[in-house]
Amino acid sequence: MIASAFAGSGEAQVIDPPDDAPSNVSLYLQPGNQVGLQWTNTVFLAETEIGFRADNTGTLEPTSVITKVAYGVTGYSTGEDATTGDVCTWWVRHRKGGVSSAWVKAALGSLSCGVEI
Predict the structure, then answer these.
(1) 23 vs 12, 13, 30, 52, 113, CA distance in Å?
(2) CA 25, CA 54: separation in Å to the nearest integer?
(3) Which residues pair with 51 in a beta bridge?
(4) What is the rounded CA–CA span in Å between residue 26 and residue 48?
(5) Which residue, among 93, 90, 2, has the nearest Cα to 46 in the 3D structure?
(6) 66, 14 contact by CB (below 8 A)
(7) CA distance 25 to 78
(8) Does 8 score more than 80 pLDDT?
(9) With helix as H, strand as E and coil as C, how does 43-96 read?
């Protein structure tokens, strides 16, 4: 846990960091050959950060966050065309109280990496 002081109150606020990363992270095909990303939230009231890294090996984690979605959201339309480019390098993680969980790489689900659908 992380403790921080309320501004001017002298009281400590306890913040539970996200111990768990999102689970069941996968990619799927949306109408129009768009790549969709979905996951299961595992940390109460944590936002989810989404990252991308152009890496054909799929082993390098993102160096920045593309977007954040609020707690309760469990999917994101990447805007990427599944018939072009490398679709298997999307990652998600939870963030709460200024602390992030580990990145989780999306499983391919119904998509094939680098192969036209």
Answers:
(1) 31, 28, 20, 17, 20
(2) 18
(3) 91
(4) 14
(5) 93
(6) no
(7) 14
(8) no
(9) CCCCEEEEEECCCCCCCCCCCCCCEEECCCCCEEEEEEECCCCCCCCEEEEEEE
For residue 94, which of 65, 57, 55 has the smallest C-alpha distance? 65
Q: How far is CA 56 from the centre of its chain?
A: 19
Q: Return d(Cα 93, Cα 52) in angstroms, integer.
A: 12
Exposure pattern of 2-33 as b/e (b: 16+ CB <10 Å)? eeeeeeeeeeeeeeebbeebbeebbbbbeeee
Q: What is the pLDDT of residue 52?
A: 87
CA-wise closest residue to 90 among 72, 101, 102, 103: 103
> Does the pLDDT at position 1 exceed 50?
no
On average, the pLDDT of the chain sits at 78
**63: alpha, beta or left, given left = phi > 0 and alpha = psi -120 to 50?**
alpha
Q: What are phi and psi of 43, to 5 degrees?
A: -125, 120
Q: Tell me the pTM.
A: 0.76
